[in-house]
Amino acid sequence: MKILVFFISLILTSNFAFAQKYSTKTGKITFEASVPLFEDVYAENNNSTAILNADTGDIASLAMVNAFTFKSSLMQEHFNENYAESAKYPKTSFKGKIVNFDKNDLSAKPKAYMISGILNFHGVDKQVQSSANVYLKDDKIVVQGKLVAKTADFKVKIPKMVAAKVAENVNVNYNFILQK
């Protein structure tokens, strides 16, 4: 009986153990929420973690909110303290799937995909869709994409006195160079 349980466990876990996982700890995520005639609202994080299961197309990413850097330290301080509340919500994450992904279709030529999943920011989970290009470069998988997030969807409150200076729709871009 113990041998049977051992072999069943081995069979069930073998797919996970042999899955082709690609990851990075230096992924780049940027966001831009600028409006015309006012100062640019732009930040980037170059230390995002991402992992891709190349066998299933499952993809996940994680970024520390306070690691987003702005051109102005005051803007960064306001973002972390007043809007993102990074002391209370220190991480932003995404967990989803590259739709119709097949690792055998990968080449040096970028291929367009949709990525669907749950984005968590400011303590709120939201189903999102993202367009992305995926391709091979030097035995690494590159995933580059973008999405638009609404501040209201994530319960981010923008004070009325600065609301005209910050876009309601935030353009998010990401670039992950994933390796085995």
Summarize, please.
With 180 residues, this protein is of the alpha+beta class. It has helices spanning 2-17, 73-83, 160-163, and strands at residues 21-32, 42-53, 58-64, 69-70, 91-98, 111-121, 124-137, 140-150, 169-178. Mean pLDDT is 90; it is low at 7-16.
β-strand number: 9
Largest sheet, strands/sense/barrel: 8 strands, antiparallel, barrel
Overall number of domains: 1
What proportion strand?
over 45%
How would you describe what is shown here?
The structure is a single chain. The protein contains 3 helices and 9 strands; from the N terminus they run αββββαββββαβ. The protein is of the alpha+beta class and 180 residues long. The protein has a single domain, classed as Beta Barrel (Lipocalin). An 8-stranded antiparallel barrel has the order 1-2-3-5-6-7-8-9. The protein is elongated and about 50 Å long. It starts with a helix and ends with a strand. About 6% of the residues have low confidence. It comes from Epilithonimonas mollis. This is YceI-like domain-containing protein. InterPro entries: Lipid/polyisoprenoid-bd_YceI, TTHA0802/YceI-like_sf. Keywords: Signal.
Key words describing this protein structure:
180 residues, alpha+beta, 8-stranded antiparallel β-barrel, 9 strands, 48% strand, signal, YceI-like domain-containing protein
